[in-house]
Every structure is written in C-alpha cells, then in structure tokens.
Amino acid sequence: MDQTDGTGDPSGGRGGHPAMNQKNSTKAERRAIQEAQRARKANIKSSGESASPAIPITRKSSVASSNNPGSCSPSTVAPSAVASSTVASSVVAPSSPSVDSATARSLSNSDQSKMATKHQQGPPVAAARGVTDVARAATRQRSFNSDGSTTVIEVGGALGNLGIFSHLPVPERGLNLAKTLSFSSSAIHPAILKLGVQYSSGIISGSNSRCIALIHTMKQVVVDYETPRDKVLCRDLESRIKPYINFLAQCRPLSVSMGNAIRHIKWLISHTPVDMPDTLAKSKLIEQLDHYVEEKIVLAGKAISETYAAEKINDGDVILTYSCSSLVSKVLIDAHRRGRQFSVVVVDGRPRMEGRELLKRLVRNGVKCSYVHISAISYVMPEISKILVGAECLLANGYVMSRVGTSQIALVAKAFNVPVLVCCETYKFCERVQTDSIVHNELGNPEDLRVPGLWSSGQEEEPTMMSWLNLAFDVTPPDMITMVITEIRLLSSTRLLDSSTPRLLDSTAPRLLGSSAPQLLGSSAPRLLDSMMNSSSELASLKVHDTCSPSSPNCFPLDAL
Amino acid sequence: MDKDEIQGYFLLTVKEHPEMSPAVAAIKTLLQVLNRDLAETMSELRKNLKDAIACLCETDSYITGTSISSGCELFLRFITLAALDHSDFEELKKILLQRGEVYLETVSCSRSKIAKIFRPFISDGAVILVHSKSRVVLQALVGAQEKGKRFHVYVTEAGPDKSGVEMHKSLIAAGIPATVVLDAAVGYIMEKVQLVVMGAEGVVESGGIINKIGSFTIAIAAKEHNKPVFVLAESFKFVRLYPLNQKDVPNNFKYNQATLLRHADLSKEHPQSDYTPPGYITLLFSDLGVLTPSAVSDELIRLYL
Fold first, then answer.
1. Interface pTM, i.e. ipTM
2. CATH number, domain at A380?
3. Where is the region Disordered (chain A) (predicted)?
4. What pLDDT was estimated at residue A360?
C-alpha cells in the first residue's frame, strides 16, 4: 500500500538532471530540485487530475505529497537559494487547509508560532510567507525494499508541523543511493558501498559491530589502495577516504564509536612517514587498525566483563537489561560461565525488538532469562536488583546516550531505587554536550513504527495530521545513573562534569591499556589498575597523572581559604 | 614479626595514643614491620608487608577496618612506587623506611590541616549536629573554639556502643557547650541545627562515605531539611570501592572481625556502619582540600596511581 514502483518515485525525476550537476550542487540544492518536481506532480493531482498509471503514486504517499506544495513550491522558483519567495502563493493555488498546514510546517522554527496562530484563524495567506529553509523543513525519508523498489515516506503530521526534529539528518537509504552515484562517482570502493547498504538496511547494527565493520572495510580499502604517481600516501589516502565517510554517513548517521575510529584512522594515515614505501606503509596501517579493534573493543570488553562488572554481579541477583548490547551480553555470559547464580530480565521495545537477539544469545548460553515488553517495566521493577545497560556514547556532561527507551527504564529504576549500571568502553566517549534527545539524534525509518492494519478498515486513509517519529536514541541524565563501568575504572557519571576527566581519559587510556594489555589478558580477577600497578608501567602511569591539573574545578585548592 | 606480634604492637600503639587514628597506628606498625623485616628482595618485602596488612585488618577488636585497609594500602603504594631502581637492597630499604616516615608525617598532620580549612564554615552562634565519635571532627571543633568561635553542638548518642557519649565528654572537657541526643531524635533536632558534621571510616569512589551506623539516616533527614552535611576525612581513608547500595558494601566493612570470624548468620547480626551515597553529602573536607563528592574519585585515582 505504501510502496511506489520506482518509476513514479520522484527520485526518478532526478534523471533529468545531469549527474555532473548533481555532483556539483549541494545536498540542499538537490533536495530542493526534488521537492520542486514533487510539488509539480502534487499540484497536478490536487487540481483534480487523477493519478495516471504513468505516475503511480499510491494513495497514501499522494496524500502526503499533496500536503507538500507549500513547502516545495518556493524551490521551484529558487532551487539554489531556497530562500524567501513571493511567488509561492501563485503556485499554491488551492487554498485548502492542508496546504496551509503544510506551509506552516515548511516555515523555519522562528516563524512557527506566528504561523500556527495564522493557521488557526484560517486564511491561507501563509504560502506567501518567507520560507527560509525548505530543504530542512521537508523531512523526507526513503527506504528501499527487497524487490529493489523505493518508498518515499513523508514525515509530516503533528511533529512535522512542530518541526523540532526537522534538523536531524534523514539518511538516504539503500539502493537508490547507489544508483545516483552513477559512473562519475564510481570512485567509491565497492566494499564501502556494500558496507553502506549493510548499515542502511540494518544488517549491521550496534555501535561496536558497526565500528568493527568499518575498520574491517577500511583495511580492505587500504589493501586496494595504490598511491598515484605524483602523490604521497599520507595525504592522498586521507582525501580518498573522505567521500567514503560521507557516503557512509548518508547511509546512516555515523555513530560516535565510528566517529572516533575515523578520527583515529585519519590520524594514523596522516602520521605515516612521507618517505615510507607503499607496501610497508599499508601493512603498517593495517596492523595498527587491527590493533585498534583489539585494544579498544575486544580487550576493553574483556576488561569490563572480567574485572569491574564481574564484581558487581553477585549470586541471587536479578539483572534487568534493555535492548541488545554486545557488551552487556558478554558481561552476562561471562558471569554465568564463572558460575554466578543470577537471572536476567530482558526488556524489549518496538520497533527494533533487539531484545530478542539478546535473549537468544543468553538462552543459548544457559543464562536464566525472562522476557518482558517495556510497558511492563514498572511491574517487574520491584523484583530487580540491578540494571545493566549498554550505551551508544557517553557525553561530556555525563549524560548517557543509548537506545531509545533506556532513559525511561532509568527513570523507573530511580523511582524503585534500583541501581543503574551502564557499560561503556572509553572509545565511545564523546566531547559533545547534550541534555535532551532532540538536538542530536538519529531518525529511524518511520515505516518500522507503523502498525499494519491500523488504517486499513474501510480503506480509510491515514490522517495527514498524524506523524510517525522513530527516534533511535535517547539521553539519560547522570543523576539517574548509579555507575558507569569502563575498562579503566568505575565512574560515577556526574563526575564527568569535571573537566579534567577527558584529559585523564585521553592521556591515560591509550597508554595504560597499551602498555598493560597483555597482562590484562593474563590477570583473572584482580582490579585492572592493580595489575597495572604491578607492571613496569608504574612510573609511566605516575607521570601521566602528574600532568593532570593540580586543581580541578570541583576541588577548591587549599590556599583559596 | 609474626601475626600475634603485629597485632600486639598495633593494639599497644592504639592504647598508648588514644587520640591517634587506628589507621595511623596501623601505618606505624607497618613501619615497625618494615624495620625488622629480613626480606632480601623487593617482592618478598612486598609480600611480607601485604601479609602484615592482612593481619592488621583481622585485628579482633577493631571495627574501623575500612580506614586501616585503605591507609595501609596507600602506605604500601607510597613507599614502593619510587624505589625500584636501586642496586643495593639495604640502601633501598633505607629509602623505603625514609619514605615511610615521610608518609607517617604527612598522615599525622592531615587532621590539623582539615581542622584549619573547616574553620571558616562554622559561623558564630552556629548550632551543629555531630554524629558519634570522630577524632577529626573533635579536633576541628576544638580548633574553632580556640579561635574564638562560639557554637553549640548536639551529639547523637550513637548506639549500640554509645560512642557519642564519649564525644560529648571530650567536647565538654574542651569547653564547648554540647548536648547528647538520642539517635531517634535526629528528626526532632534537625530543624534547630545549622549544619551537620561527621567523620568517616572510609570515603569511597562514588564520593559517598562509609561511617558509623546512623550516618545515612542523619544525612537523609538533613537533606529533607536542606541542611548542609559536611564530612571530615583524611585522605588515607579513601578506599578503592564503589558500592551501589548498602547490600553492595563488603561485609568486612559492615561487621566487626569477631562477628565475621564466628561465621554467624549475618542476617541476625546488626551492621556497625552504613553507606551514605554522594547525593546526601554537601562537601568533603580532606587534607587535599575541600572536595565536592563528585571530585572524590578523581582525587582517589590520583592517590592510587
């Protein structure tokens, strides 16, 4: 019902624009052009022409796009500037309320409240209003289906009108992306293309596995790379990688773990000696990339599960976990193998239902499990002794960004006085500061949220006022989190507010882990730091700490009094 | 030195110097052990010292095992960290002893440092609630009184050993007006009180404290009344531990050794200390300075690394 068969897809209209053009124009401009074309079609439709077979836009999407002309038409006039347009009103002839609402949606946030009142008063003058950012306002989502056809979904309705999520990047999904690349952009490595599709279709998901897949693919890129004659590897390879990253980001916004890994990769490349022979440089790069995965992900996970987390899982515990984190499943399975007697409550939530995967893994390893939906959370909470969740990233202000729903769990846990433990490797730390889930988030495919059969009774159309918002993450404030378990130490997440922490982590983390990683493997249960202290790195780590600021902002120096 | 000798020396030191914190006495004992030790390699010496620490922690009559273990561990780290590059072991041992003395010196004067930095927080005419007996709190209050501050102190009786009564005696002896209140009267007294001061047996990584049973109750009452809770603790009490709740605190911090050794059913025993989470603490005064609870783990990691 919600599918078009490709030919009718507005992206087909892109064919009219030469590939070169597309490449040179910015994303916003391209989008504006698409909007224009869609608007034209929608205008034809709204002025009474029935959908011809040549334009097989099905009913729902047609409703959605007929909702659109207000936002689109200005771009017909000024595709490049997407700036204010006075002609818009002439293009948007039909003065239906839906047009009005669409216009309100297309307005920038500042104009919104004004426009909302206008909308309530009724007169459809809105279209003539200055439209500042058409490309942004028209949130649009495209997904690709298994048969290769594409679907255009409009994110509209109530939240679309509010527009508070309109700044979030809408990933261009799947095959149509690959199509638009054409020959001019065949420079993108096939492995990257494959990875992009895997990301966008959700075959590879989860912070850690996405990062590992990225590094693995980057290794392939490095292997296949040959330095052009008049260039040097350390500069050329970096610039070669840039469009790859952009492509991946288009497929699905980069996770923090990937961002950190990419920064590391770029650093490695740019620090390759200029005069190093290609083969040597490449093998060295690959080795370093392997090392990164080993150290930051594999060993870190091992450290977390074998030292700190192990201490916190005791006999008789009932541990609740939400969604699927590879780290949490490792921690739980390791604790079970060590003979701890505990049971796990796996909480799951729509639309991703990732908890099922975790459930599968745990049960396969013999862990006692129960499975509930997130709506039953307050019912099970009194039975829970600890909550263990993973994280997408840990923000600089101590907030934890995690799978959407985690913050709700933490809130209920706080109400029931249950300690919340977050497992997070230090490579997922992020210097961003964020206090809500709006400013930075990821939009999932709204199609996933839809309930089949909800509007099908009597072929009733889906109300245009309704929108589907599928956010991927939410943030949990630090006062709801008892403890963050990293491979270096246990943190109270409020402490992250302290500015010396990033420095501590930046300077010590790689070095400490780097120097004592082998011992870590050997040491069974004692604290990580203990094993470090006994190693020869004692003095080195001491020195590292001497470089820390003598007085952190949370610490009043003695002489101040 | 064998086990009995170590424990005997420790108990004697504690008896001779009642004003001395048990952790300091333990460090003194360790210095004695170090002095008499016959070990010929560094690792042997380290092992002997560790054994001695274990002995000290098992000392029967003492419930303040928290600060003893943390103090000893810090001592061990302090003396052995810098001394790895000497060829002659006798020389090395001298250095260790020297460093040990230095550490003992700094530890001993940390209390007066705390008393000094805490002084500005007592205003004239203040009414202060104090929980149980704490040497560092006593010294801080006496110091303030000597500087001409006038204030009144309420001391909780602090069951089951009524250590608050002892504290009351010491305060009266120092000329500070003081009143003993029942532990159950904390809620009643809280509205008159301007600030709450307590010591700590151990300061943990989260910034919370482990202290005489009843501290948590007082902290809750104080938070409800929006009264500041100040904790006075020397830095050798910083423990590498991150309890999530009361249950997560190790048993040897909650019960005294005698109870644990009896292998009694712990559910029938009464704990001697409780854990106060960082959210209930306004500020921590240590010889490192005045810390917010959230800064503790930074300082702690700096101490232990």
1. 0.75
2. 3.40.50.10470
3. 1-78, 90-129
4. 94
